[in-house]
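hey so i finally got around to running the thing on that chain from the lab meeting. sorry it took forever, my laptop kept dying and i had to restart like 3 times. anyway pasting the input first so we r on the same page abt which one it is
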Amino acid sequence: MLNRLLLVLMVTLLPGCKEQSLLLAKQDVINLTVNEAHGAGGKRRVTVSGLAAHSALAVERIEQVEQPAGSVALRVYLSPAGAGRTGQFSYTLTVPDTIKQITFGPARDVIWSRSDP
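ok and heres what got predicted. didnt touch it at all, straight out
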């Protein structure tokens, strides 16, 4: 009877215990660096790097999402740290002429703006 009760509890509660991702905010990045370079064919490339200030969390994934009005949102997701995973990240975007700025995190802080008209 007790085993059956434990099984029912596990089946009921475990699905709610899955890992949740945290979206990294700009103010929680140590040494946020944004570098711009021009690659082959004049393509503009922007590299964003830094270290998440959350010691128990590691970078899970990085996404770039095009936004309206010529903007790209860079999103760095964190999850509990594990073997071989750290809070350090480096991500390079190829920036087409239609993109005027890159934002970071949930507040969409502008971290790069096109300097030419």
